[in-house]
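Suppose you are handed only two things: the residues of a chain and a line of SMILES describing zinc ion. What would the bound structure be? This form records exactly that question and the answer produced for it, so the two can be stored side by side and reused later without any lookup.

QUESTION INPUTS
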Amino acid sequence: MGPPPVLGAARVLAFASDARHLAIGETVETHEIQLLHCDADWGVVSSTTHASVEDARAEAEKAWPGVGELWIDAGVSREDAIAWLEEDATEFKCSFCGRRPDQVKNLLAQGDARICNFCIVDFAKELAAERES
Ligand SMILES: [Zn+2]
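ANSWER OUTPUT
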């Protein structure tokens, strides 16, 4: 069975056709190429960042010789990946700006409310401006 369209914050570009649960993805927001090693349910166990898909494939080949023959193109469009992330994130978005968890560095939660690092910085700036006036 292949992976879902998104692993962590990365759109799946390719995956190994054997049972090793390896995938190469590109993060939707920051366009980082990642080599992802997953468990049997495609939960991300570890990921490394690479300069290009070729680099990620070369790194995979070093760790798992022969895997180069097994890559299958996942065919996930960026739109599909964003739709998947949006659906997955419905309950976990910032309550103030609506950013998804994959679009922020930190998300502070209290009950049903969440606030992201961007909103906290904006609020801190507002407070500082008030203090100065
Ligand atoms: Zn926010």
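WHAT STANDS OUT: The chain has two domains: 6-86, 93-132. Residues 94, 96-97, 99, 115-116, 118-119 surround zinc ion (CB under 6 Å).
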